[in-house]
Amino acid sequence: MNLFGENYRNVAFQVLTGGKDWRLFRQDSVHSLADVIRAAPQAFFANWVASLAKFPGIVAEMFKPFGALAMLGLPVWILRRDRRRATLALALAALVVVVAVAWLEERMLLPVLPVAAFVIAEGIEGSLAMLMRWRGLA
Predict the structure, then answer these.
(1) CA–CA separation, 9 vs 90, rounded Å?
(2) What does the DSSP assignment read for the chain?
(3) Cα–Cα distance measured from residue 29 to residue 75, given in angstroms and rounded to the nearest whole number
(4) Distance between CA 73 and CA 28 in Å, rounded?
(5) What is the mean pLDDT of residues 108-132?
(6) Are 51 and 102 in contact (CB under 8 A)?
(7) Per residue in 60-107, pLDDT tens?
């Protein structure tokens, strides 16, 4: 019995077969994440980087109508110097980095939703404030 789950098999499948066909994957060949990394270190890290690169697209897909506002709000949210925001951002970044070891999907990023709502709200607020300054209303 593995105390930490068997997610390493998902990683091994993705890394060793390219996620193509379960029939090509010999599950007996790996017993831990370390086995996967030892078997194909370059493929493991390439898969991890590719998974991380998909993150912005997945978030944009999750918030289709508000994706641009989230992108506007993100710098505003980050630049406001607040220890709680920094801690939350660090925790979410750690979540994404760890989950990306296997692969990222929308369902795995549900903890990001509440924070994204705040980021989108700040994007709307920042956009409106910028528009009002531009129009001379503020």
Answers:
(1) 27
(2) --TT-SHHHHHHHHHHHTTS-GGG--GGG-SSHHHHHHH-HHHHHHHHHHHHHTHHHHHHHHTGGGHHHHHHHHHHHHHS--HHHHHHHHHHHHHHHHHTTT---GGGGTTHHHHHHHHHHHHHHHHHHHHHHHHT--
(3) 45
(4) 47
(5) 78
(6) yes
(7) 787 777 766 666 677 777 777 778 877 877 888 888 888 888 777 888
Find tokens 């109508």 and name the residue.
Answer: 65
Q: Are 55 and 104 in contact (CB under 8 A)?
A: yes
96-126 burial, b at 16+ Cβ within 10 Å, e below that, comes to beebbbbbbeeebbeebeeebeebbebbeeb
* Buried-exposed string 39-52: b where 16+ CB fall within 10 A, e elsewhere: eeeeebeebbeebe
Q: How many CA atoms lie within 13 A of 10 on its CB side?
A: 10
Q: What is the pTM of this model?
A: 0.67
Amino acid making up residue 121: A
